[in-house]
Amino acid sequence: MTHIEKFQRELKAGQAALISSTANCFYLSLFNYYDGYLLVLPDKAFLLTDFRYAEAAEREADKAFDVLCPKGTMFGAVAELLTANGAKTLLIEENHLTVAAHERLSEGLADTGVLIVGGAGKILTRLRAYKDEQELAAMARAQELTDAAFSHILSILTPTMREIDVALELEYFMRREGAQSIAFHTIAVSGSASAVPHGVPRNKVLEKGFLTMDFGARFGGYCADMTRTVVIGRADAEMKRLYHTVLQAQQTALDMAACGVSCWALDLAARSIIDGAGYEGCFGHALGHGVGIAVHEEPRLSSKAPAETLLERGHVVTVEPGIYQKGRYGCRIEDMIAVMPDGRVHNFTKSTKELIEI
Ligand code: ZN
Ligand code: ZN
Fold it and tell me: What's the pLDDT score for residue 279?
């Protein structure tokens, strides 16, 4: 079943949905564009754009969509289509449409009697958590490029590089090898900066100690996300202990990950290894998150996740425990795994986790 078919099945008679975010427009239409809307009814779908995108949309978008270039305003066209198709309720992306756009939409629909309600965002968040074979294949390729970038950086990494050099080399390599773009801002932080889970690479020569690199390629619209931590200089006994505690926490969660396991329980298992080794309070974020068109999606592997949220077929999540000691250093190791259609867990990330000293 295609993405648009899955979504249309969620709509009741008399309902329509206006899709405004780039990510959800791409998910449903398979066409990547940055200006326009999708209008979806239970049995019809329209892609509203302008002449800049129209030709490519005709070629690339799912054939379920009629491509339209409205002569007047977008919301004027939406009003006409809703009236012509007998829609009574319009679901919007409650987590995306701006207040300003909502005001214009309300004005545009004033004479139609159509009720504007939220809800499209919630449906799409749920649907997007389950990846199909094509999406899994795109993510596997995105992770291959990301793994290759890690091998590349290991082959050129020296203690005299700056943090921004490390980040740029990773990004340039991924783009050159075929990534559509980077999936998110690359993190490459060393020394005391490694104690900040989401630090920004500095125009500064690598400090001795841990170097954390968190990066990913985007391929075919889908993200990869991985982290590896290496040591600049030599690791002392305490650094080795910390590194191996993170690794053990990750391996425990990876071993436990299976179709039907509670997302909350996975976080707890990894956390108890870290807490049990004397690092209580040093693992200040969730164990992992879903990945897809966005780098952060459902489900969350979090102590705050409802106990009934289970790892299911089609879920792709990261497993990324870390230990951060403020003012000192930090370390994180992140893989991206999927529950495949046959129920088996597959780890996309192939890069070594041996403690590497540069
Ligand atoms: Zn990451
Ligand atoms: Zn992540």
Answer: 98
